[in-house]
Amino acid sequence: MKMLFEVKTNPDQRPFTFKPGTNQPIRSNLASQNDTYAQIISYATEAQLYQHRDFYYTVYVWQNYARLMRWDRAGVVLSEPFDWVKERKPLLTFMYAFAMATPQDQGYSSHARRATKDKVSALQKLHKAALGLTQADAEAPAEEGITKPAREDSTDAKPAAKAEGPDKGLAEKHRLLRAAYFAEMLRDTNKWPVHKITCVAFELAEHTGTQAQVQAQTQTQPQTQTQVEAKKATKTKVYWVGKYRSISTSRSPTGRCTKTYVAYDFDSDSFAFFKDSWCAAQVTTELANYKAMDEAFGLEQSNSIPTILASNGESTGVTRSQEFVENLRGRSHQLLVMREIGRPLEEYESQFQLVRVMADAMEGHRLAYEEAGILHRDVSANNIVIREDGRGMLIDWDMTRPVAEIRSGASQSLRSGTWMYMSALLTVLPWKWNELADDLESFLHILCVMALRFHVHDISTPLPITPEGNAANGPLIGALETYLVRYDGSAGMIGSERKLDTLELGGPRWRLNDEDCGIARLLQKLYRLCQQFYEGVNFRTLRTVSREGSLQWMCDSKFRFSQSPVFDSHVQIQQAFNSILQDNTIYWPLPSEKTGDQFEGLQT
User: What is the pTM of this model?
Assistant: First the structure.
């Protein structure tokens, strides 16, 4: 759908004022307007979700009046109302201009074009081949959602990957992953058409070692004029995407609105991870953060941070709503293609894998902090993923900040990060700036949430675990609220004191049934570290400080929120993880010990 017309005739369904030539507010004061507003917003949200767009037009008609609307990821701009019956020219002019406009001027992304039938057919044949179908089946007309494997007795089945000996299992795993990725991107191509995405290739730095070593290499290896000109030449990369893999949980027409996809590259016959998001303008882009890390230590040298393959470059699409609305922040379009395709942390197979994946992510966090001078600021379960080889990776570097600028104050009025996993200090002190200690504490909260969700404890829903049983579990709801509760304070959002209480006490009020298992032992170590940190916090002084009063502390480089040095670096918390992983006496339960999701069905 290129553009939407919404027509209402009922006076109670009038969401805007439509009387021309007055200074009335845009929104009407009808009590019944909320449902109509929600309907309009949902239309704009869905259009931008299913299509690759920079903006979207709608025309809202109420009786003989109309307003033109332009949506982008910063907001929506409305025209003055006009009587389309008496004054036909404005609407007809707009419709003619829209019909004659280029796809880009109609709101479609300049980087995306709908795939031809031949390309879709080629992808579907590759999917069938990956499934190990017969040659005849592979050449048959493509069908939606085909998932059947080749018959075992087939004599002409030709799997996409075939190997003998010790590599056979690895090849089979690769084939199954390949088939799963094709199935994911080709699911219902009528609803989610396949698109061709054109990006700019990312030139990875050719080096190893620390920032000092990189600078030395740069000084000792001057480039020729030919090399300089070759690097200036823009190299493009083409990827193909279908149905999105995940979307922002807010499901809003405005904001970051992140969408991710599995993308296929015909040239290399490989898959990659594609991220489409809108970052706040005037802040460092995620691409710039990856460049800084690549220059510092080389993304290809680190297995715990994604390797960037391509992007939409520096010439990103920018919203325009902020040009018409005061105090509205604009957003810029960011496309990133990453080599590694991860799966959510919650899909870990065992306690040992959970701990190892988190340890890998922490190593990525340390590298960025110490080598590139970057603080992540949004360590959460959503931003730690499991690579195809079972190890871990820290992703989503779009909220980062240079360590040197941590004390310069907030770049946005709202708190950065995922509330559920924020440090207790950040949730009880709205004016506090993010620092290393806050990120490190988030690793503890991630482990706590995973333990509550997927392992048996003294407040678990009785087996078998069901959403209905979870919904009636008052103690479990109370434990979850420890991480979720917040309310508007005089200086900003304030969180539950219960999170702070558990850290000061050195442990939560609930206990895992198996207190000798790996994650139980690690939780004990992490809570002890946090307890030491909070023993060094002077809350009597901190609670009397306002956001304005904190500004003088930002300029004082000697000021510390805690006198404890436990989180001055990654050393002690990494030692806690490594001591658990390397201790041969630690008991690691079988994967079958992991339960179903105990948060499913909870209402908080």
Answer: 0.86
